[in-house]
């Protein structure tokens, strides 16, 4: 006996029920829904380790939410362009719905799925306030500078309205004989060694995202503009992972802060949009310089320096504290990301792609667009990039954004007894201060692996050689 018609809902980076256009369109058909998540082994870039762990929590939350509606989230693993046509036929699905993605590999997969199911696929915008096709400069092409992008986007914020969650959903039964997996079988979380054992509970899912947003609005929004750069206190919204996995939409966030003094926060939210627009226009951004001139940049092959940076053993406390934080928690504040990225690219002259790959694997909020564009911004090779001569002094950055040394003490216990005056420059502290704090330079604390003034001159010389006429 054939299955009754249903609608197949393909969840990806939209792991929520509220303000989910694909899910809403499926529910509006009046047909029962078959909800599926596919761990894609082919096509898009494999998800990094920390983000895999975070994805598992997001999927568990969506599973629970769908259960409360009387439904279930089903799991598959493999190539979506193969599995979805097979599942559509086996389930007797009238159509497949999903929300759009914007990376090159993801778009290619989605196009192959749509071609295989010609006429039975509907797609929607779930992740952006305005899609690339809806927002472009008058001269054509795509925005390459953030300021005009922000001006164009700002006019749209007043009209960003989220869809309410559906009141009722009806669900189809899984087709007999079509193999599916349990979520645990996706093996998203590490087993041995469990490097994520100390990761803080992310409070994943819609409820967690809504709670995080409400706490941010009530406790942090008013001081966001001045406190967002402080790394010694919790001034960030910490919504980035919720946004990446689609546990909350940008429309929901904009609507929630409307009427509040939130422009700086909205600018940061729109930087995320800007990065996605850039990735849509240049799918090679995670590995190719936007500015081809930087293809000639004389990056150094320095495995020891790269390893010291990864493990938080550079001798610069603010750099090392941030790198140990991300390893222990999967999170790093935006200012800290800029500091450590500048150090890798400009102090060590190590290719930005090495840092991008490390962040991809260690950040729970690793996002292809934000990660690539932000690294190229620091490296000077991207659109709307920071001037290459902006080379952060890690000592001064630490003293400015962690003035009492609380952040360093949290993540570098070997320096915990140093006075604030010396905690960001232990290599310059008097011998009696070091002895009293139990710090031995070259012993339990490394000497700086490169001297700042030397590194700055070397970086500027490398940039000059790259940009010289005829170079």
Question: Could you describe the 3D structure shown?
Answer:
With 471 residues, this protein is of the alpha/beta class. The chain contains 20 helices and five strands. The chain folds into three domains: 6-126, HUPs (Rossmann fold), CATH 3.40.50.620; 127-162 and 206-281, Serine Threonine Protein Phosphatase 5, Tetratricopeptide repeat; 292-465, DNA Cyclobutane Dipyrimidine Photolyase, subunit A, domain 3, CATH 1.10.579.10. It has helices at 21-28, 49-68, 80-91, 104-116, 146-157, 205-219, 224-227, 240-244, 250-257, 263-281, 303-311, 317-329, 334-347, 352-362, 368-379, 394-401, 406-411, 420-423, 431-437, 452-467, and strands spanning 6-11, 33-40, 73-78, 93-99, 121-124. It has a five-stranded parallel beta sheet, with helices on both faces. Helix 12 packs across helix 13 (334-347). The protein starts with 5 loop residues before the first strand and ends with a helix. It is an enzyme of class 4 (lyase). Belongs to the DNA photolyase family.
What attributes characterize this protein structure?
Rossmann fold; FAD binding; five-stranded parallel sheet; 471 residues; 3 domains; alpha/beta; globular; 20 helices; chromophore
Give a quick summary of the entry.
The protein has 471 residues and is an alpha/beta fold. 46% of the residues lie in helices and 7% in strands.
